[in-house]
Amino acid sequence: MKKITLMICVLLTAAGVNAQQEKGIIGYNNWLDNWTEFKPQKTDSKEANQILAGNITQNTKLLKRNVYIIQGNVYVTNNAVLTIEPGTVIMGDADSKGTLVITKGAQIMAEGQVTDPIVFTSNRSMKKAGDWGGLVILGDAPINKFGSVGSYNMDLDPALTVYGGENAAGNSGILKFVRIEFAGKKVKGADSFNGLTVAGAGSKTVLENIMVSYSGGDSFAFYGGDINASQLVSYKSINDDFKFTQGAQCRLYNSLAVRSSYLSSNKDGSRCLEVKAYEKKSETDFTKKFTYVSASNITMLNDSENIKGDIEKGLIKEAVYVAENASLEMKRSVVSGFNPAVLLDNNTEINSANLKKIKFEEMFFNQCSGNIFTENKTDNTDLENWYGNSIFSNVYSHADNKETFVDVYNPRRPDFRLQLGNITASSGK
């Protein structure tokens, strides 16, 4: 009888944990353990013994026993497959802006392990955001530019950076248990690279358990394509954590964005989530799909210990930005410490058609100076009342980060899951 009673208690406890942690990132255990690194500046720099340069035109395997350095722009071409063993370290050369490009038709198979992740990092001893280029993956899935093709315009070879097509189920490979650190180098006369750029990748591409930290540009940038992604981590990016544009169709699940008040760029575009239907109207085929993002169990937080003070100083902006004609459905997610939580493009008319395309349900808004606003509009009562309706089950709170999350300031192994019981916060604003 005691055994049966004990089993019932265990089952009820497990069910309670699951129910209480259903908002934001979830898991019975902290899935950030073992493979992530929140102090990458303090990791020892290794000496490279292998050079990656020029074009990789045939199937190639990178081995854990070696340390590789990417010199200049390196392209995987000719439908080749680049395979990377778990535990392999690849460094981007800062002087030559090392950048790895997986061209259209080629694949990257980078499948690390939870205790042996693959690491892309800077070759500098004193590492900082923007030391090297980043990782670029180009595929043949649909985008909404004229001709169904685009080119990733930086200082790369335009003939080798074409992406887009008609293959929504395209397969550009696997990234799993991978870290990308200190990428996002600024290009003279252009923008910054991103930690991970995914352009025109199809739904058979696997993107799971990827951490981008201290990116000088966006952490994750998706240009078109049809993407499933889960357990992505963006840590202290200079620009956006997650950017979607050019008709991207994306399902993002159980992912984390941590921002810093003092690292964000002052320019437009330093948000956790930016959803745009297109980049330039003049280049857009309006007969094709606009960007659609379904995001669930996402945690977005500013890690400041003085949110109110940083908002007053103008250091904190919105967490989510939705541009004209774009669609976002966000559920069971946490937005903590922003000004406001969500900002809609001022070209987005507040009507039933647009409100059907922009949904926020079962959300947990915490320590935000306003929840859902329209850009440059002083009175947002209509939006606040709409999304504050009880049918959406959104809840609101004003607790600090230490009370909100399990162990947010642990320097080595932080835990950004919600504290048990914290989602019982008031549903009133």
How would you describe what is shown here?
The chain is mostly beta strands. It has a domain of 289 residues. Helices cover 10% and strands 34% of the residues. It has five helices and 32 strands. The protein has a 17-stranded parallel sheet that branches. Strands 2-5-8-11-15-17-19-21-23-26-29 form an eleven-stranded parallel sheet. A two-stranded antiparallel ribbon has the order 12-13. A hairpin with a 7-residue loop joins strand 31 and strand 32. The N terminus and C terminus are likely disordered.
Key traits:
disordered C terminus; eleven-stranded parallel sheet; single chain; 32 strands; T9SS C-terminal target domain-containing protein; 17-stranded parallel sheet; signal; mainly beta; globular; 5 helices; about 425 residues; disordered N terminus
The computed structural class is mainly beta
List unreliable stretches of 5+ residues. Answer: 1-20, 424-428
In round numbers, the mean pLDDT is 90
Total strands? 32
Q: Major sheet: size, sense and barrel closure?
A: 17 strands, parallel
Strand content: 25-35%
Helix content: under 10%
- The Rg value, from CA coordinates, equals 21 Å
Terminal CA distance: 47 Å
Number of separate helices? 5
Overall geometry: globular
